[in-house]
Amino acid sequence: MNASTLRNLRRWHHYIGVFLAPSVLFFALTGFVQVIGWQDQRNPPPPAWVSWMAGIHKHQAAPKPRPPASSRPAGAPAAKPDDDHEHEAKFVPLKIFALLTALGLFLTTLIGLAVALGTRSMRRTSAIMFAAGVAVPLLLLAL
User: Fold this and answer.
1) 113, 1 in Cβ contact below 8 A?
2) Phi, psi of 92, rounded to the nearest 5 degrees
3) pTM of the entire structure?
4) pLDDT tens readout for residues 24-81
5) Where on the phi/psi map is residue 89: left (φ > 0), alpha (ψ -120 to 50), or beta?
C-alpha cells in the first residue's frame, strides 16, 4: 500500500473509533455488569439504572416496568422467568476472563480516546465525532 492510502486508512480508523468509543465504553461496562450478574438479583432487586443498562445491553431497548404481582388478575399466570436467569455460571476461570476482557476493553478505549483527543491536528473533528457517537445512540433509543 502506498503512503497516501495508509494515511487515509489511519484517519478513517481514528474517526470511526472515536465515533464508536461511547458505545464500546457502554457495552464494556454493561457486559461487566452482566457477567457479575448484578441485574439478576432478586432480593434485594438491583438499582433501576442497572436494570435499564441491562435492558439496553441485551434487548436494545429500555425495560418496561412490570406490574406488581398483587395487581395481576386472579388466575393469571405468573410472569415467566427470563431464560438468562435459569443458567448457573460454574466455570469461574471463564467468568474471570470475561470480566478482565470487559475491563480491558473499557480501559483501552479510554486510552484510545485520550490519544485521539490529544492529537492537536484532529482534536476538533474527533470531539465532533465523539459527540455524535454519544448523540446518535441516544436519539435512536428515543425513537
Assistant:
1) no
2) -60, -40
3) 0.72
4) 999 999 888 888 877 777 778 777 778 778 878 877 777 776 666 555 565 655 555 5
5) beta
